[in-house]
Structures are given as structure tokens and as C-alpha cells.
Request: fold
Amino acid sequence: MTHLPGRHQYVDRDSARVVTERLIADSLINQLYARSREDSSLLFKAVTSLRMSAVLGFLNFDLPLPGRQRGIRSRIRAMGIDVDECLAEPESLNTPRKLFERQIRYWQCRPMPTAVDRIVSPADARMIAGSFDRHSSLFLKEKFFSFPELLGEDKPQWLRTFDGGDFAIFRLTPDKYHYNHLPVSGQVADIYEISGRCHSCNPGAVVSQVTPYSKNRRVVTIIDTDVPGGTGVGLVAMIEIVAMMIGDIVQCYSTRGYDDPLDIGTGMFLERGCPKSLYRPGSSVDVLIFQPHRVVFSEDILANMRRQDVTSRFTRHFRSPLVETDVRVRSEVGKKRNRALP
Reply:
């Protein structure tokens, strides 16, 4: 499979508009991931290594933004970032790293549903949903990731738990707010890191590389929501995946704004909607995995996925409609299934 040229579009959830995504370094990334380069390239292996990703991250994110101080605010707005929702003054966000690691007044500008059985987006991201169940209308062949590889082939307990379940993929782009928030409330049953590379999450690169998300470095958190105060949707795997130019995933759970951040450990109770972690910096991906027959995804997101009037590189690859919806962190993306199926 070679790279897929052309536009990539998604649906903006708030306005229902079809938007053409501006993909950064699209031509270069697609050339890098083309089959002729992929087969023989030491360069390809070097660029997707953790060390090179850190170097690229420094060059792209740690040098000062060009222009005078008074021009920084307008430059930030030109990137599509709402300066009014930021906690820091825009003039202090004078490097791309500071900008991409920005904190926002999420309690004001990212409202969350009050119903306890609602699942919320873990990030400002572009979302699609799928299923491991071959009989489900959401079944997707393994292309984004290999299920055993994603969770860890040495984790038979979790492979059995989530076999045949449903999943959601949240693709963050470099302009996005890069804190991850809890999609559910519950108790941490397990948390572990899996080593790997730093493949790009550019849509063309994703469909050119076999199961890239499960080849990247990632942190897996298993949350038991069937506990007092929990969301009640069974066990949920939240997987934070690095991508090209991501240097780290910092666990920084806080129940009050961003104050007194804590590392996350087994046995902790985590509250839905609170900040959990921070990507440093660049683009990245969150994956949520649910046990079979425990959740129902929001109907507008499912309807958008089936749209045939949107040009999506995922649609071209799968040869059937597969369109992302741009969602906001803490917005509803699913809910508890009223009655568990046998």
C-alpha cells in the first residue's frame, strides 16, 4: 500500500460543517511512508525512533515564535486557538511548546454532561468508533492497531476481558489542547507502559503503515467503573499513544483545576472529566476500549462516520465510509448500554 494523496476532511461536531484538514508536512510524511521508502529505509527507522522524535520536537517546539510580542496574540488566533480560554496570558505563550502545553479553563469552556453514566471525550480530537466483534456494524479490520499488540501480548487477563469489545480512537493534531482528561470515573485496576516507536498519526501515514498505533510507545490504564461512584460501564482501557515529535506522556491527575498533580497508581479512584496526563508535545492518539455490550456511542458521531459526502483518506483505504468527527474534551461521546446483551 502506497500513501494516499489528496484531501482529508472531517465533520466539525459543533457546526456540522465539513472541514478540510491542513496536514502539516503532508507531502514529506507521505513520501517517507511510501512503500519504496518503508522497505529499505534506515532513514525511516531513524525518524520514527524515540531519540530522533525528541530532536525533531525540540527543533519544532522549543524555538521562540517569530514576530514581536504584540504579534503573538494574532499569530495564535491565526492557528485557530482561542486565546480567551487559556489560563496564561497569550504573550507568555511565546514558544510552540508553551502553546501546545497550554492549560485552559476547562471547567468553563469544556462543559461536561451531569449524568453519571455518560462517557466523555478524553481530548480535543478527531474521533471514530469501531468494534472487535465481527458481527458488529462497527467492525473494522485491524489496520489502526493489532488488538493483542496494543494491550500487550503478555497481558492475557486484559486480552480476554476486552475480546469482542468496542473501541474509540481520538486523533489529536498539533494545534489541539494536549491534556488528556478522564473519560469515565472508576478505580485503577492496572497501569503500565509499553515501549515502541513514534510513528506519525497523519491519516496518509496511518493507512500506509500496518497497525502503527500498536507499534508506538504507549501507556495503558485499566479503569474499573463498576465501583461505588463509578460510571458503571465495566472495565475500560484508556491507552495514550505517542506519535512523531512527542517526547513524553506525563501522568498529572488533578481533581481541582491543574493543582497538586499526582502520578497515577493502582487502586486510585479517578474522577471523570479531570485532567489525567499531558502529551509533550506534537500530535498523538488516545484509544478507549470497552468490554462487549457495555456502551453505546453517540448517534451523531456514528452518523458522521457513514457520510459519503466527505473526502476521508480512511474512507479511501477501507473502501467504505469512515469519517472522523471533531469533538471537544469532556463532551459526551457515549453512554452506558441500558441492557447488557447475552
